[in-house]
Amino acid sequence: MTKKQELSRRQVLGGLAGTAAIPALASPALAQNNSLKIGFVQPETGPLAEVASGNAFVLENLRQALAGGLQVDGGQTRNVEIVVRDSQSNSNRASEVAADLILGEEVDIMCAAIHPLTVTPVADQCELNGVPLISSITPWETQFYGRGATDDAPFSYQLHQFWGFGEITNTFIDIWNQLDTNKVVGGLWPNNPDGVGFAQGFTPILEERGFTVIDPGRYQDLTDDFSAIIRMFLENEVEIVTGVVLPPDWTTFWTQAAQQGLSVKAATTAAALAFPGTAEQLGPLAQNHSFDLFWHPSFPFESSVTGQSAADYAAAFEEQTGRQWIQPIGTVHSVFETAIDALKRSGGGDWEATREAMFATNLNTIQGPIVAGSGPVPNAVITPLTGAQWRQSDGPFDFEAVIVSNIAADGVDAGGTVQATA
Amino acid sequence: MDWIATLLQGLLLGGVYALFAIGLSLVFGVMRLVNIAHGDMIVLAGFVSFAVVEVLGLGPILSLAIVLPLFFAFGYVLQLAVLNRTLGDDLLPPMIVTFGLAIVIQNGLLQSFAADSRKLSLGEVETASIALGTDIAVGVYPLIIFATAIVTILALQALFYGTKIGREFRATSDDPEAARLMGINTKRVFAVATGVALVVIGIAGVLMAIRTTFDPLSGPVRLLFAFEAVIIGGLGNIWGTLLGGVTLGLAQAIGGAIDPQFQVMAGHLVFLAILIVRPRGFFPKVAH
């Protein structure tokens, strides 16, 4: 069996001062025969690495909280080991490392997060080998209908906790309805699975809700020139721009739009500006850009593992990393909360027992309540989704995310109302 | 009216591609060296400028005063210490070395700057535009890039045809053996040429970093279009590279006006068509 890197790059660098990863040193001191093992597959490197960039903190925080072991039902205390593998943002690699975690490491439960490229192959492996899986950070439809399940034949081993197209569409529409616009929406949907999926999913719903959709067609990612699309938006008097756009493409589009005289009232995207770092780099151009925000320090929830509130958790992240909080950290933390809770109730060791415990989950997490069976399909639990806008701030960081729509986020308060861009 | 706007935007986009391609053209023209790390070097320049801006608080344009000498030195040493050892009759070894260099640059940047995307800011100039007529507006910044491409080419022209080192460049490029017989230290000439190429790459990198966001892995995309521009224009011919860039830009603009889905492909199709009709490009400098 080939050995693979077990700690994150940052930890290896910190701990070994830049020497090559030595696999023998990489297993935590806790590794004992009676350890419960949680496998975790994430895109630590590759194009999706930015989304996973807070996970080193998430794991470190959990490992500290679990240092004294976990008291499972029945009174026994077991060590918990989290075994992390990098999918390299690549689905073949994700499948390979998932198989290794299942067959080589013999994990008791699996976790996977961030994008179908990582989550889907891991879910396929888990379903094939009968290993319970908690997954997140990709719309639930990609994990259910996207992988070939039907309402009559759901999957047996996956519990996915995230939102879906219904939530994001409602949230975006709620943002736009707070503004006075002509309801003409320009779509920037690229020629990739996300773009195709959003174009197909959004257009009919928007038209049903009284919007006119101007769809120029699927452009290529990393296009250097958006003039043709901008002219089309100008001709049709587009006042709202939406899409699933890569950050460099959004920058190119938005600056060219300003140069060529296109000024819209709302710019609402998934993906492009989901992180404060990207907003910061764009500077004033990011002001009032709205986006899907699935976790925020103001969420009124706390962790079942560490007891930290969302606000405390974000503060700990900022203190330890020196970076502004990013939304995936709370969501990834809650994936582990669900996994740990299932192991606690099943006692681990037996995949079937853990699977049953997983599908009986009723837990309050830092992401919100996770109640198995409450979702639209047996494999999915819907977690809160808000719409937020970037606002320039005097605080320690250039931009802060202000929640402006909580229509799909029960119990979460809005921090303000929608303001027009430009 | 619409078509005028389309052609104008295509022309300006061509300036971007040309600027990205000049360094590649230069390295090939003098040394017959295909620099696979070209795109990554552009991104590296963006990051170096980003670091200078962050640490010293200079503007991106002023950061050129540090980036460019640094890149000249980098190119000089790189050629002298590494690439010169690989040059010979075979095109492959230097190409593979630069391929390795590309991987080193990408991962080095990932280690030191993380995967976050970055951008340099030039303030209002970025979004400013000049209105031409009623419904055509061109951005000031694209105009700056286009002008920079032309000025860079003029400067290189002056360097090649008006200076001693320029004569040595041309002599070495035409026939390295004969140049050596005439007492030219070709290794040093190559080192200076790579240094100059890296200066041009530095300019392209900083202007790219202002134009759009970049991350450690965004280099290879830059390489592709630069390659096409160089090949359309004719290997090693710098004015040809400008024409190649503009051809590519116009093809994309026209393709995009027909259907945005067709935009990038239109550029590739024109490239293929030119390869078929004129395999050596419009103005090949390399005759043998």
Automatic annotation (TrEMBL), chain B:
Q: Which GO terms describe its molecular function?
A: transmembrane transporter activity
| Transmembrane intervals | 12-34, 41-58, 64-83, 95-114, 140-161, 189-210, 230-250, 262-283
Q: Where in the cell is it found?
A: Cell membrane
Indicate whether Transmembrane appears among the record's keywords. yes
Entry GO CC = plasma membrane
Record membrane topology: Multi-pass membrane protein
Q: Name one Pfam family in it.
A: BPD_transp_2
| Keywords attached to this entry | Amino-acid transport, Cell membrane, Membrane, Transmembrane, Transmembrane helix, Transport
InterPro entries, from UniProt? ABC_transp_permease, BCAA_transport_permease
Q: Does the keyword Membrane apply?
A: yes
Q: Name one GO biological process term.
A: amino acid transport
Similarity comment: family membership: Belongs to the binding-protein-dependent transport system permease family. LivHM subfamily.
* Alphabetized PANTHER family for the sequence: AMINO ACID ABC TRANSPORTER PERMEASE PROTEIN, BRANCHED-CHAIN AMINO ACID TRANSPORT SYSTEM PERMEASE PROTEIN LIVH
Output this protein's name: Branched-chain amino acid ABC transporter permease
**What is the scientific name of the source organism?**
Roseobacter insulae
**Organism placement in taxonomy:** Bacteria, Pseudomonadati, Pseudomonadota, Alphaproteobacteria, Rhodobacterales
